[in-house]
Amino acid sequence: MTATPTTTILLRALAAGMLLVATALIGLPSTAAHAAGQYQVRMSGYAFTPRALTITAGSTVTWTNQDTAPHDVKSTSGPHSLHSPMLDKGGSWSHTFTSPGTYRYLCTVHPDMTGQLIVKAAAAPSPSAAPSHTHEHEPTARHQHAERSAAAPPATPRSSTRPPSPSAASPTPSAASSAPAQAQAATDTQPAATAAPLQPLLLLTGAVAGVAVLCLLLVGSRSAAARRTEGSEDV
């Protein structure tokens, strides 16, 4: 079937839209990661905006002067002192805070301009991420147990007509079935965690494909109607 000019235009528009959506999805994580830990404070109207700010240790704050008058940043209290150079209109100054605590500051030219920064400690790593040292002591304990067994005199065997207990000879059903159940649970959880980030992309791709199919069907029906009209006119 020969593609009409309208069909070609629609196909090109759909391809361009899908390219734009893919570019936006690829660039979104990098933009979010770049903005993390970056804060802005404006010097405007002879005031710091925002006047109070709460951040996490390791974050960077940038002060930008938007007034015609010069301003600076000088701490009045806090874990350590701050003092920026004098900033003219459009000038900026950045500082990275590593010590948790409360910082109060002002502009030395305009003492009524005051601000406050609360720096919280960074979140500690989860216990699951810490390396386990349990297995480091196992060889020593086993070695000591082997040395005691070698040094101890052999025990005199005693005859017994009593049969061994069935419970001691075979593991319990619950203990034997718990290991496969745990392995199956770990196997079922891993694909779900891997597939979760793909769900928005799959939904978006399906929506775009659906729109493309509808557009093609609409163009095909119009082309068929036009051909029928032309045939009836020829008759």
From the structure above, extract its key features.
235 residues, alpha/beta, four-stranded mixed sheet, 5 helices, 46% helix
How does the SSE layout of this entry go?
Blueprint: H1 5-35, E1 38-43, E2 48-49, E3 52-56, E4 60-65, E5 74-77, E6 92-96, E7 101-106, E8 114-120, H2 138-151, H3 166-169, H4 173-195, H5 199-234
Parallel strand pairs: 1-4, 3-8
Antiparallel strand pairs: 1-2, 4-6, 5-7, 7-8
Give a structural overview.
By secondary structure, the protein is of the alpha/beta class. The protein has 5 helices and 8 strands. The protein has a 4-stranded mixed sheet, with no helix packed on it. It has a 4-stranded mixed sheet with strand order 3-8-7-5, with no helix packed on it. Helix 1 runs antiparallel to helix 5. It starts with a helix and ends with a helix.
SSE class: alpha/beta
Helical stretch tally: 5
Largest sheet: 4 strands, mixed
Note poorly predicted spans. Answer: 26-34, 134-138, 189-196
Summarize the model shown:
With 235 residues, the chain is of the alpha/beta class. The chain has helices at 5-35, 138-151, 166-169, 173-195, 199-234, and strands at 38-43, 48-49, 52-56, 60-65, 74-77, 92-96, 101-106, 114-120.
